[in-house]
């Protein structure tokens, strides 16, 4: 069994632990009314986007999300939360150092605390039980999002039950042999759709795209046709399924909680990788953490 396969299968248990941990770490996470930014890189950035929408939907306050490298340092925030599995990513550490100099309170949600982020952030929330050996992120990212979702009161036991279902239900027939995948979301699940497409590119070297569901009809639907898949992670806009099927594409509706739908996509990525005889534990050109040294990338 690959590291990715093992780790994605442990997500329901990790989500339960994160939800239990959230009340104990409430004081170091954004407080109601605080103007907050959530940052990350790659997968963690997409989770940040989802968490930001959820926090605003919960009425907790204005919340933005940025890639750590694109954080607008001229803006003022009451707190910045950094999502970082490794705790070593250059862009995150550079940003935390700058925010400390500017007097902005920071919290890092991290998988491995024995890393530079331990001293770079003012506060830590450690999810070491969700850390991973794989390059491709699955359980750390969704567990960090679950922590923030539980913190604003939007996590339920149904989410975990749906994730367990996502691990055992058969994938749609013939889907692993398709050549192109499009993922759609709405609201907070737009970030999840972007993450779903990233997983297909990372683990399965697939042509994968993602869009807000309503935007899909404004041009991107033109690439749909026989041999392609359009997968909705959330509620379908009226009439969209029929329009997609009319192109000859395979339509996959979202039936579970959107985060559990992402678990189904994790399984899809592994199935496509197996179909193409790829090793999902060794994604092309990727490392577990991006550390920039004199303009070059290194592994740590």
From TrEMBL:
Keyword check for Repeat: yes
Highest taxon in the source lineage: Bacteria
Keywords annotated in UniProt: Repeat
InterPro entries hit by this protein: GlmS/AgaS_SIS, GlmS/FrlB_SIS, SIS_dom, SIS_dom_sf
Domain annotation SIS: ranges: 26-164
Name of this chain's protein: Fructoselysine-6-P-deglycase FrlB-like protein
Record-linked PROSITE patterns: SIS (PS51464)
